[in-house]
């Protein structure tokens, strides 16, 4: 006997019902991208016997001003406030997504006053309850909840990343301020020496013991030294403005805080980088954020695919007429399915797949960038350490050379030109020494940030008693 063909819509509905009875959620099952555990560093790894942990690393600087500045910055940072607001928005979205799988109950009440031409009137009062519940047959609500939950974790990781970046920026700026102050002192000492040389030379020119050209050279050297000193003070002022911007405190308070401590460039304990890249990658909150975004994109594919299938909802209502003591009720299921939508729902699936592909590429790019940042920080740190050692030796040697040349000049066995050349060489060497000392500390800070800055995977953001993130 010939059987009539089953309509496509009916067959789809039957398949949907079978899948629903099986309790399945459509869409891919997410698995985090695997990282290769055999990767090795291709850069010099520091092992100086002073390995310090990432946790509480700033305390190892033993600098009270630095610790206080970082605390000030974290307590009043618009960047962290924005990151915290993003967490709040993501959590609100998660609450909304969870509500999508729950029944909706609405209470109604009303009173109506009516009348006619016969001057009669009546009041009708009623109250009722309406309930509706869309069954999550194909996991759309579950997938949306998964996506929203992953994005909460991503925003929390973003907050930790912002916190690590802020601390590193404050510390690096503070180190530059300290180094700038030492450089300014060097220029000021040099200016004092050059001023004395110019005055002595002017006296000798006036007495006829020295050629006028030596007087002109001394004056030019004095003007150049003054310009360099002014420029260095300006650079220090600019760096101090940056600290004001980062901490939210005014200059007098910053200067008073720094005056209580040492003027030397603070130096931290070293960091041992003996983990393979795959392990280090799990320590970075920015990569955790990218991975959670990838998980959210995967869940959204399932949510989009669930829209291709029928939806089943249950609804009911109870209405009580208080005027007539009459109660009515209704209850029943409703099955709906889109028969024609111009390809919009299929396009939504394609869009979700494309978003996942983009998120995966973003994560892979983030992994490459993380490895690059760590290896570049290692190379810079190794190079700077070697150069700093040589620069310190050069500074000491040039200073001895300047002292000897100045003694010879006062004894009349060296020319003013030789003295000024020796002075410029000594100053240049001292500047290189101080600059490389500051660069070495900055490279340690860059490595600290590249390694994740002490963030622990899975760490959540909580609030203190004042409602602020902690």
Q: What does this protein look like?
A:
The protein is an alpha+beta fold. It has one domain (34-102, 139-309, 346-450): Outer membrane efflux proteins (OEP) (Up-down Bundle), CATH 1.20.1600.10. The chain contains ten helices and six strands. The strands form two sheets. It has a four-stranded antiparallel beta sheet with strand order 2-3-5-6, with no helix packed on it. Strands 1-4 form a two-stranded parallel ribbon. It is elongated and about 125 Å long. 33% of the residues are buried. It is found in: Cell membrane. Keywords: Lipoprotein, Membrane, Palmitate, Signal, Transmembrane, Transmembrane beta strand.
Q: What is the residue-mean pLDDT, rounded to a whole number?
A: 84
Extract low-pLDDT stretches.
1-22
What is the molecular shape?
A: elongated
Strand line-up of the largest beta sheet: 2-3-5-6
Number of separate domains: 1
Secondary structure class reads: alpha+beta
TL;DR of this structure?
Its main location: membrane. With 470 residues, the chain is of the alpha+beta class. Helix content is 61%, strand content 11%.
Which features characterize this protein?
470 residues, alpha+beta, Outer membrane efflux proteins (OEP), four-stranded antiparallel beta sheet, 6 strands, elongated
SSE inventory with pairings:
Blueprint: H1 8-21, E1 51-52, H2 64-75, H3 78-99, E2 104-115, E3 121-135, H4 140-206, H5 212-247, H6 251-259, E4 270-271, H7 277-281, H8 285-306, E5 311-321, E6 326-336, H9 344-410, H10 416-450
Parallel strand pairs: 1-4
Antiparallel strand pairs: 2-3, 3-5, 5-6
InterPro entries: MdtP/NodT-like (IPR010131), OMP_efflux (IPR003423)
Keywords: Lipoprotein, Membrane, Palmitate, Signal, Transmembrane, Transmembrane beta strand
Signal peptide: 1-25
């Amino acid at each position: 006997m010939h059987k009539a063909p089953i309509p496509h819509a009916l067959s789809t509905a039957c398949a949907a019902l079978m899948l629903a009875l099986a309790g399945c959620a459509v869409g891919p099952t997410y698995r985090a991208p695997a990282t290769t555990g055999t990767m090795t560093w291709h850069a010099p790894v520091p092992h100086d016997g002073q390995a310090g942990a990432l946790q509480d690393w700033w305390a190892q600087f033993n600098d009270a001003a630095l610790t206080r500045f970082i605390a000030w910055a974290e307590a009043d940072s618009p960047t962290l406030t924005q990151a915290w607001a993003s967490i709040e928005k993501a959590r609100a979205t998660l609450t909304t997504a969870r509500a999508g799988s729950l029944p909706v109950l609405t209470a109604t009440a009303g009173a109506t006053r009516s009348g006619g031409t016969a001057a009669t009137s009546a009041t009708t009062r009623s109250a009722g309850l309406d309930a509706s519940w869309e069954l999550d047959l194909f996991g759309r609500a579950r997938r949306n909840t998964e996506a929203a939950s992953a994005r909460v974790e991503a925003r929390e990781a973003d907050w930790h990343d912002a916190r690590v970046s802020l601390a590193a920026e404050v510390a690096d700026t503070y180190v530059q301020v300290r180094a700038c102050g030492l450089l300014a002192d060097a220029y000021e000492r040099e200016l004092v020496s050059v001023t004395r040389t110019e005055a002595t030379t002017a006296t000798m020119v006036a007495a006829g013991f020295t050629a006028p050209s030596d007087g002109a050279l001394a004056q030019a050297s004095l003007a150049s030294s003054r310009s360099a000193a002014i420029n260095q003070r300006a650079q220090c002022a600019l760096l101090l403005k940056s600290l004001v911007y980062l901490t939210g405190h005014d200059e007098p308070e910053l200067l008073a805080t720094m005056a209580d401590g040492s003027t030397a460039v603070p130096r931290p304990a070293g960091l041992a980088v003996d983990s393979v890249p795959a392990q280090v990658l799990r320590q970075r909150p920015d990569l955790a954020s990218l991975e959670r975004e990838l998980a959210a994109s995967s869940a959204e594919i399932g949510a989009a695919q669930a829209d291709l299938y029928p939806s089943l909802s249950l609804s009911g209502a109870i209405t009580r007429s208080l005027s007539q003591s009459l109660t009515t009720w209704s209850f029943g299921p409703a099955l709906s399915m889109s028969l024609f939508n111009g390809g919009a729902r299929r396009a939504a699936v394609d869009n979700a797949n494309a978003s996942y592909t983009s998120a995966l590429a973003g994560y892979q790019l983030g992994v490459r960038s993380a490895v690059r940042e760590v290896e570049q920080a290692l190379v810079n740190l190794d190079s700077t350490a070697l150069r700093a050692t040589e620069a310190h030796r050069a500074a000491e040697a040039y200073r001895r050379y300047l002292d000897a040349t100045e003694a010879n000049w006062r004894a009349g066995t060296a020319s003013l030109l030789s003295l000024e050349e020796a002075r410029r060489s000594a100053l240049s060497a001292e500047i290189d020494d101080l600059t490389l000392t500051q660069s070495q500390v900055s490279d340690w800070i860059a490595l600290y940030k590249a390694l994740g800055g002490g963030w622990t995977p899975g760490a959540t953001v909580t609030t203190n008693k004042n409602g602020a993130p902690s």
